[in-house]
Amino acid sequence: MSMKPLEFDRRYGELDIVITAFVGQEPESPDPDLAPPALQAYLRHTWHTRPWALSVAAQQLREYARNPPSRLRLRIGEFYPVPDIGLPESRTQSWLSEMADHIKRSIEAGDVPPPATPQTHWEWHARFGELGQFLGGWFSQDMPDEFDDHDAAVRDYKETAEPQLAARLVGEIHELLALGLEEHEYLIGVAELGMEVEPPSPHSVESWLLTVAESLATTGPDYGK
C-alpha cells in the first residue's frame, strides 16, 4: 500500500526535491570537498527561499542512508525508491550521507550562496516557476499552430490566467532581466524554461520579455464589474 501524501512528505519530501535536482546532472564532484553543481544549485535556491528546509533535507538524506528499504517494501510502496541518477546501487547509501554532510556544513557555516544565474534545468524551473509554465505552455513548438502570432498567445494567457499568477509572472520576468545576461544566455534560459520558438522579429529575448511584462502589467483586477 502506497504511503499517503502527508506521510511521504514527512519522511521523504525534501529528499525527493534534492534527488530531483540531480536528474540529468553529474552526481559526483571532481573535488570531494565541494558539493556537486546540482547540490550547489539546490543550496543556492533553498537558502534564499526555504532555508528551514535545509536541515530537513540533511536529516531525511541521512536517515534513508542509515535505513535503506528492502526490495519488498519498495515494491509495495512503503518506501521512496531513489530514482536512477547514474550511481551504482552499491554507492547510493554512502552518496546520500555525503550529500547530507555537504548540507550540514553549509548550515553550520551559515554559508549562504549569493544569488546567481541558474546553472541547472532544475534551478531554472525552481526559481522561475510561473515563467516556465508560461513559456512551456504557450510558446512550445505547437505555438504557430495554436495562435496567429506571439501577441495572440500572450493575450490568451492574459485572458485565462489568474491575476495573481500573471502578477507573479511579471515579477519573475523582471527578476530574470535583472540578471543582466547576454542574448545567448537569455536564449539558453528561455529554452531551459520550455520556449521552443524564436521571439518575434525584430525583438531580442530581453526586449520581447520586457514587452510581455508591460502588457501583463496593464491587467487590472476584475471586481465583478
Structural commentary:
The structure is a single chain. By secondary structure, this protein is an all-alpha fold. The chain folds into two domains: 5-109, no CATH class; 128-217, no CATH class. The protein has twelve helices and no strands. Helix 3 packs antiparallel against helix 5 (92-109), helix 6 (121-127) crosses helix 7 (129-138) and helix 10 (163-177) runs antiparallel to helix 12. It starts with a helix and ends in an 8-residue tail after the last helix.
List the helices and strands and how they pair.
Elements: H1 5-21, H2 37-49, H3 53-66, H4 71-75, H5 92-109, H6 121-127, H7 129-138, H8 143-146, H9 150-160, H10 163-177, H11 183-192, H12 205-217
How many helices? 12
Main beta-sheet strand count, sense and barrel state: none
Q: Quick one: overall form? A: elongated
Return residue spans where pLDDT drops below 50 for at least 5 consecutive residues: none
Beta-strand percentage?
Answer: under 5%
Q: What is the string of SSEs from the N terminus onward?
A: HHHHHHHHHHHH
Our count of domains comes out at 2
Can you describe this structure in just a few lines?
This protein is an all-alpha fold and 225 residues long. The protein folds into two domains: 5-109, no CATH class; 128-217, no CATH class.
